[in-house]
Amino acid sequence: HPRELQVTAFLGFSIRSITELEAQMNAVERLIYYCEELPSEAQSVNNDYRPPPEWPSKGKIHAKNLRMRYRPGLEPSLNGVSMDINPTERIGVVGRTGAGKSSLAVALLRLVEPYEGTLEIDDVDALKLGLEDLRSKITIIPQDPVIFSGTLRFNLDPFDAHTDQELWETLEKSSMKEVVADSGDGLEMNIVEYGGNLSSGQQQLLCLARALLRRPKILIMDEATSNVDYETDQAVQSTVRREFADSTILTIAHRLWTIAD
């Protein structure tokens, strides 16, 4: 009968709707968790504790009994680290996989907050600073280059803080000027997603160029040349040696000649 068919169809529709609603409520539950329960980073700027405008002017790092874990319940990745790094020193960090080499960089940038100990940069408590004040003064060249889709100019200088002349000078120092000039588009050269139209060596040299523009007093090189060929490795090392003579450098690497350099 038509009425019985309508009732059956209605019941089927109701069951499907309830099932879909239940599945969608999982998404709502996750959103509530992200908004209300997930721990968030510290504030970008701590107005009650700002560094001097010229900070850091030396690049001195002092840590005492620094402990950090990636989440509660795990063993500490850094377990009571104490160190004094003087201005312009070059420090090599060597160890087996999982020893906590990269965790040291994570703690310095406060990507994960240390739960114990002290960390000072040029006698300023880095654990009290706003994250923008801290991270804007430390530059890291990571193992896996971070490349954005867009123009080369945007990848080098996303905040338009530098002139074209400064960008070209930086490209020359990082051995990328010829590649960019040959593209025909100059600084407007298009970079596809993840830097797909650049070789792995060129991607790493682009990250080096970013670091050169910022002229940081503290530079972290986290396995920066582990995925590039020997020639690119030598180009990076030569540029770092020449252009960052007044910076404190932490080099995390497996290759002994990188540390020895």
Keywords:
261 residues; four-stranded antiparallel sheet; 2 domains; 9 helices; globular; 40% helix
Q: Would you identify the regions where 5 or more consecutive residues have pLDDT less than 50? A: none
Helix coverage percent of residues? 25-40%
What is the CATH T-level topology of the largest domain? Rossmann fold
- According to DSSP, the number of beta strands is 10
**Helical stretch tally:** 9
Structural class category: alpha/beta
Mean pLDDT reading: 88
Give helix and strand order, one letter per element, not per position: HEEEHEEHEEHHHEHEHEH
The top level CATH class name of the largest domain: Alpha Beta
The quaternary structure here is single chain
GO cellular component, one term: membrane
Membrane topology: Multi-pass membrane protein
Subcellular location: Membrane
Keywords: ATP-binding, Membrane, Nucleotide-binding, Transmembrane, Transmembrane helix, Transport
Commentary on this structure:
The chain has 261 residues and is of the alpha/beta class. The chain folds into two domains: 61-136, no CATH class; 141-260, P-loop containing nucleotide triphosphate hydrolases (Rossmann fold, 3-Layer(aba) Sandwich), CATH 3.40.50.300. It has nine helices and ten strands. The strands form three sheets. A four-stranded antiparallel β-sheet has the order 2-1-4-5, with helices on one face. Strands 3-10-9-6 form a four-stranded parallel β-sheet, sandwiched between helices. The longest helix is centred in the first third of the chain and has 36 residues, at 2-37. It is globular. The mean pLDDT is 88.
